[in-house]
């Protein structure tokens, strides 16, 4: 009998994706900014509470739009964590700016707001708050710093769809927010993203940048007699096929997150005794509840033990992975960025974090299988 495979991630459908895609085709237009693009944007505006949402073909594209809207240019500095995906930094390097890396907190793995002010210089233009695993940064502290120093606050909320800080959705707290709908996220469209424009003063220009630098949106509303090139921009729109798939997922977004929270809490309760025995550290969710249960991770005692656990699980058909190599240590990071301090928490977390399987149609039985294998691993370690 072949052993059961538990993948790290598994793309899924909720039911209406193919129906909506067929409807988009029958509508006679499958380029961007059609019916399903508008439905998705309206859904985000209503359910997240932002003045304007624009779908993009990726979160990377949303970040690149945010960099343009923030008027980032050569020599500007943008403060961000090193423990993040490369797109967070790339979007600003493409504008000629310098990412300035600050360490993260060990409890949330988010940007340590207590270290940010020391990194601000006369060249600083923006701060990027990355909500790791969908858990919120200390947005109040970061907003105070931005107000004090006249900075733009951009949220990299790639992992945070429908996650909230108190009553407000992540991605809607800064001037701009960026979402991802990549197939590894909670709500998916294969590739996809969205830019949330929370400062109404930026909406008109955002639409122009989104439409390749033209005033086409104003033209479509009858505000101008013809459209033309008026600013920088690019092809940031997804197709209607992508938007149709996404709309089906958005309609089920809350139920998706509810199921993922149940899986997260099952992991937590089953593994709590091993944490109590000192084998690893479990995630620390704000208020004791995972915001949207995007990631469940363990912080192991060493890099060596992490590698051994990943290999042990893989031999049993369970696929766990580690996460980011710190950007400040990467070849491009050394070339394009600078760091404030040695970033010891970033280094430790990067060396010791392991992500366990967590996907939207995972079963509680599969969670139990993963946990049983982890107990087996540490039983062997005790015997050794």
From TrEMBL:
Say yes or no: keyword Isomerase present: no
Q: Which InterPro entries match?
A: DegT/StrS_aminotransferase (IPR000653), PyrdxlP-dep_Trfase (IPR015424), PyrdxlP-dep_Trfase_major (IPR015421), WecE-like (IPR012749)
Q: Which biological processes are named by the entry's GO terms?
A: polysaccharide biosynthetic process
Q: Which residues form the active site?
A: 185
Keyword Iron-sulfur listed? The answer is no
| Gene Ontology MF, one | dTDP-4-amino-4,6-dideoxygalactose transaminase activity
Q: Which residues carry this modification: N6-(pyridoxal phosphate)lysine?
A: 185
- One Pfam annotation reads DegT_DnrJ_EryC1
Going by the UniProt record, its keywords in alphabetical order are: Pyridoxal phosphate
Highest taxon in the source lineage: Bacteria
UniProt family annotation: Belongs to the DegT/DnrJ/EryC1 family.
> What is the protein's given name?
TDP-4-oxo-6-deoxy-D-glucose transaminase
């Amino acid at each position: 009998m072949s052993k059961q495979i538990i993948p790290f991630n598994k793309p899924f459908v909720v039911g209406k994706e193919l129906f909506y895609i067929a409807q988009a085709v029958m509508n006679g237009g499958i380029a961007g900014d059609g019916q399903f693009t508008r439905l998705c944007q309206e859904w985000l505006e209503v359910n997240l509470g932002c003045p304007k949402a624009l779908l993009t073909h990726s979160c990377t594209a949303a970040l690149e739009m945010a960099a343009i809207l923030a008027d980032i240019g050569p020599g500007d500095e943008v403060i961000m964590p090193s423990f993040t995906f490369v797109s967070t930094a790339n979007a600003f390097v493409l504008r000629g700016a310098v990412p300035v890396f600050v360490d993260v907190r060990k409890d949330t793995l988010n940007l340590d707001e207590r270290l940010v002010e020391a990194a601000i210089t006369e060249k600083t233009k923006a701060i990027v708050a990355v909500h790791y695993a969908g858990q919120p940064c200390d947005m109040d502290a970061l907003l105070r710093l931005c107000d004090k120093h006249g900075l733009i606050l951009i949220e990299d909320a790639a992992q945070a769809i429908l996650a909230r800080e108190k009553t407000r959705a992540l991605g809607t707290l800064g001037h701009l927010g960026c979402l991802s709908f990549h197939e590894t996220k909670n709500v998916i469209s294969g590739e996809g993203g969205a830019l949330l424009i929370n400062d109404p003063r930026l909406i008109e220009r955002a639409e122009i940048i989104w439409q390749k630098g033209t005033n086409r949106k104003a033209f479509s509303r009858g505000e101008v007699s013809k459209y033309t090139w008026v600013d920088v921009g690019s092809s940031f729109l997804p197709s209607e096929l992508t938007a149709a798939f996404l709309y089906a997922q958005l309609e089920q977004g809350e139920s998706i997150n509810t199921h993922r929270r149940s899986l997260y809490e099952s992991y937590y309760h089953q593994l709590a005794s091993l944490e109590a025995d000192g084998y690893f550290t479990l995630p620390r969710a704000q208020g004791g509840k995972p915001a949207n249960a995007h990631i469940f991770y363990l912080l192991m005692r060493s890099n060596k033990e992490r590698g051994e656990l990943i290999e042990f699980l893989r031999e049993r058909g369970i696929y766990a992975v580690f996460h980011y190599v710190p950007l400040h240590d990467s070849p491009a990071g050394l070339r394009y960025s600078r760091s404030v301090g040695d970033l010891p928490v970033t280094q430790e977390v990067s060396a010791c974090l392991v992500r366990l399987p967590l996907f939207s149609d995972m079963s509680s039985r599969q969670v139990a299988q993963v946990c049983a294998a982890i107990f087996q691993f540490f039983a062997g370690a005790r015997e050794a």
